[in-house]
Amino acid sequence: SEDGLLTWNFMDEHLGEDGRYPVSYLKEEIPLLTTAARPVAEEREMEQRVTFEMLYGKNAPNLNGKLTSVRWLDDGKSALQTLNGQLYRVDVETGKRSRFFSHKKLKKSLESLAVSDDDEATRLSKRNSWTMNPQRTAAVFEFREDLYHLPFDGSPASRLTNTSGLEELAEFSPDGAFIAFVRGHNLHVVDVASQTETALSTDGNGDDISNGKAAWVYFEELYGRSWKAFWWSPDSRHLAFHRFDSSRLPMFRALNTLPLHGEIVAMRHPKSGDPNPDIQLGVAHVAGGTTKWVDLSAYTEGTFIVSHVGWMPTGDDLYYYVQDRAQTWLDFLTSSKTGGKGTVWFRDTTKAWVESPGDAHAVEDGVIIASERTGWRHLYHYHRKNKTWRALTEGSWEVRTVHHVDDERGKIYFSGTKDSHLAENLYRCDLHSGQIDRLTEGHNAHRVSLDPTGTYFTDNFSDHQTPSKLQLRRCDDGALVRTLDTNPVYKLEELALTETEFLQVPTRDGVMLEAMLIKPKDFDPEKRYPVWFQTYAGPHAPVVREGWSRSRLSDQMLVNQGLIVFRLDPRSASGKGAQSAWTAYRQLGTQEMKDITDGIEWLKEKPCIDATRIGMSGHSYGGYMTAYAMTHSKLFAAGISGAPVTDWHYYDSIYTERYMDTPQNNPDGYQNSSVITAAKDLHGKLLLLHGLMDDNVHLQNATQLIKALQDADKSFDVMVYPEMKHGLHGTHYQRLKIDFISNAFGLANE
């Protein structure tokens, strides 16, 4: 075998007279799926307590397992799967596997490139992750700031570009004949066959003008943290793209003090109330020529955003959503690929803000689209001619993700919360009768992936005690076809884990809040315990939910220090529909604080709780809520505020104004939501954490609070991580938090 694999094929009919099996080479190497055996009992130490070193030490064990990844192919019968470091094409129903590509052929293809020496060719050929064409016959990759086309059949690779400057966001056209990319803030396309490159825009320049690549605030708040701002037409002959003009935006500057003479990192960043990037939507032909711009003149420049773009199935029209900057309404429009004035189909509104509904699905007489108009996210059929709405789903639950629409059979598949607000399930809805069938089983949380034909789905499921497993099921009835990965994590069997209690906590106005409570393994009801409370609290972002997360083990580590761990979602963060999130509208922090207060007061009534030793922590919005609680209540003796927004004047425009409107329109809301203006009221021990290079929640938030606390002569602790952005991590960071909790509550002496 070219890759050194031998496969043994033992069959009784091959058994020889001497009682032995003959050995033969097979044309296809089929790996035997194995996992390490469960250790023998004599070598296992059971009832181990979760410790800091077990979670964050140098030799920390893998407590999540390693779940097999599956990527669907277009035929609905096969998928790509990585096994033993190799990529295989797998018949999903039978499990029969064949090598997807030969690394030997890849190396041969790469060696044809003059710029690639033997070592580089070998290294590249061993990759299993590629940006492939839709036909899965070739890939594009960036090497030394140029793009290369790599066929999988062993034919020579080709160099596509030969220009200085980094090529970004490379993506094949649907037919695989072209590749679009961004270089120097301009959109380009290259013909794979002729290696002919065409610039579709030429005016991109640094921080001000960008074509095909999102401005930061669009990247962060609207486009799912994707920089790509171009969209191939179904016929592969046109590209819709955004042109962003950020020249009116203020420049935000961060100082990196690690270099000898310091370094200023600057970016265009709109705070709430600042101008947003001016945006245009154009359509270019792959052959170049004049861009056809969509006419957006019906909307006043600087007062709107374009929150989504897509193509209609024919490729003759594109659709897009225009919203006012405070996102109180959303217009659904279509426009011809030749540009010009768009046609407004409808305007969607709610009692508060309007979330972008994501992709719309065109049907013969209109579109299927999501809306939160009733306070719950549901699917609707909008009839274009009659201008009428018909609810496809309804009730006090919400549709989360649409996976597949089968026009021929009149079925739509989606994940939602019909059976539990704490765990998503997969459902199938009949587009005519409205009947909804649940296709996943049990109380688990399910993350599913449907094949492009809607025949099968993979079900990645877990609960709060068990890491993910993977099964293959049928879309017609949810029946199990086979288990793809049991993902055993034997180390978890050796741990002394205490059970998590899922609770509902009443509020002053009768709303029930979801909560989780974890007690020490040796819990003594006669003893009074300190409490560590954790939340995120941001709109529609629950922390109380079913499903496996490594943070569950961090909770176990805390209870092993003698704490009770308590998690609770304020109603706006509960995931119980937009109607619950709207309670935070124009008053971030206010209703959340009332709910947190009710939750803590409910907890304090329990005789096992030491009401003088209750602490709180959170990161990002959770960091904001921690700092807010420490300055707006006396509930908490200690708090850890990670990367917090401390005043909503200092956060970006699109996120903040969705929930708060602009500072100009809602001055009282901004005043009441500020941590900085309440710094003089700090109660308890506060640890403030922030990354110096945070490009999301700027360090400015921390330094403004630090100044206000100093002016008020308040004591507090602070730790800044010089090289980190918004996601804080590392052993020092984790140990600092644990030491702070121990010292704040005197746990080291207990």
Explained architecture:
The protein has 750 residues and is of the alpha+beta class. The protein is built from twelve helices and 44 strands. A hairpin with a 5-residue loop joins strand 37 and strand 38 (512-518).
Number of helices: 12
Helix content: 10-25%
How are the strands ordered across the major sheet? 37-38-40-39-41-42-43-44
Q: Note the overall shape.
A: globular
Largest β sheet strand count, sense and barrel closure: 8 strands, mixed
Question: Based on helices, strands and strand pairing, what is the structural class?
Answer: alpha+beta
Percent in strands = 25-35%
Radius of gyration: 28 Å
Low-confidence stretches: 1-6, 24-29
Number-wise, the strands total 44
Distance between the termini: 62 Å
The overall average pLDDT, rounded, is 93
Task: Name some characteristics of this structure.
33% strand, disordered N terminus, alpha+beta, 6-stranded mixed sheet, 750 residues, 15% helix, 8-stranded mixed sheet, 12 helices
Fold topology:
Elements: H1 52-56, E1 70-72, E2 78-83, E3 86-91, E4 97-99, H2 103-111, H3 118-125, E5 131-132, E6 138-143, E7 146-151, E8 158-159, E9 168-172, E10 178-183, E11 186-191, E12 196-199, E13 209-211, H4 216-221, E14 230-232, E15 238-245, E16 251-256, E17 263-268, E18 278-285, E19 292-295, E20 304-311, E21 317-324, E22 329-336, E23 340-341, E24 343-349, E25 361-363, E26 366-371, E27 378-383, E28 388-391, E29 399-406, E30 411-416, E31 425-430, E32 436-438, E33 445-450, E34 456-463, E35 466-474, E36 480-485, E37 500-506, E38 512-518, E39 529-534, H5 551-559, E40 564-568, H6 577-581, H7 590-604, E41 609-619, H8 621-632, E42 638-642, H9 653-660, H10 667-672, E43 685-691, H11 700-711, E44 717-721, H12 731-745
Parallel strand pairs: 19-23, 39-40, 39-41, 41-42, 42-43, 43-44
Antiparallel strand pairs: 1-2, 2-3, 3-4, 5-6, 6-7, 7-8, 9-10, 10-11, 11-12, 13-15, 14-15, 15-18, 16-17, 18-19, 20-21, 21-22, 22-24, 25-26, 26-27, 27-28, 29-30, 30-31, 31-32, 33-34, 34-35, 35-36, 37-38, 38-40
Helix pairs in contact: 2-3
